[in-house]
Design a protein that fits this description.
Layout (H helix, E strand, L loop, with lengths): L5 E7 L6 H12 L5 E7 L6 H8 L6 E5 L6 H11 L4 E4 L11 H10 L4 E8 L6 H18 L11 E4 H5 L11 H7 L3 E7 L13 H21 L10
Parallel strand pairs: 1-2, 1-4, 2-3, 5-7
Antiparallel strand pairs: 4-6, 5-6
Helix pairs in contact: 5-8
Length: about 240
Amino acid sequence: MSQPQLSVVIPAFNEEGNVATLVDEVLAALRGVVPFELVIVDDCSRDGTLAVLQAAKARAPELRVLAHQRQSGQSTAIRTGVKAARAPWVATLDGDGQNDPADLPKLLAARDAGPADVKLYAGWRVNRQDTGSKKWASKWANGIRSRLLRDATPDTGCGTKLFERAAFLDLPYFDHMHRYLPALMQRAGWKTTSVPVNHRPRGAGASKYTNLGRALVGVRDLMGVAWLIKRSKLTDVRELE
């Protein structure tokens, strides 16, 4: 396969009912649009996710499957995929199928029309298809995060994102970092922008998060990211001739 210009990275944990459809949707969205590879990272699933992905490889030469040998969480799975990616730009989607691969060309078009110092295009779920309690919890968390971090991002929880691989790998790594990518990119001196995207109900399986669990972890992480931002220093560098 030729060198890809885009790597699509999808973390998956117990998503045997969703990953086959997701693979086909990525192929339909990107074939003929951009040379790409699809990297799905299985986070030690306990169901048939790996078997479904192995079968999908027969119809999808763009597909690469990486398997964690120990469950490590979504941020680690994303980072595993980004480290393995062969393209300079990476798009991410959640493995539950709620993100729409048809939005990927829209993100690419936004990047092509945007300035060079924008290194992250973050999906913005303007019409979320979640339960009322989940939408309320997300709205509450987004409000607190926005006031504390001032990242000017209405929706950091959307899995649909497009970013420069090198810029991502230069960010500090920690569990749950994927929820704070706009603030971390801005801390590194880059600009970010939000792009409205589609959102769909979960097709199969169950959510891996609860509102309470997300909130308890989120408070600690939020304080940590605020500390990182406060302690950061940026400067221009000039090399002498």
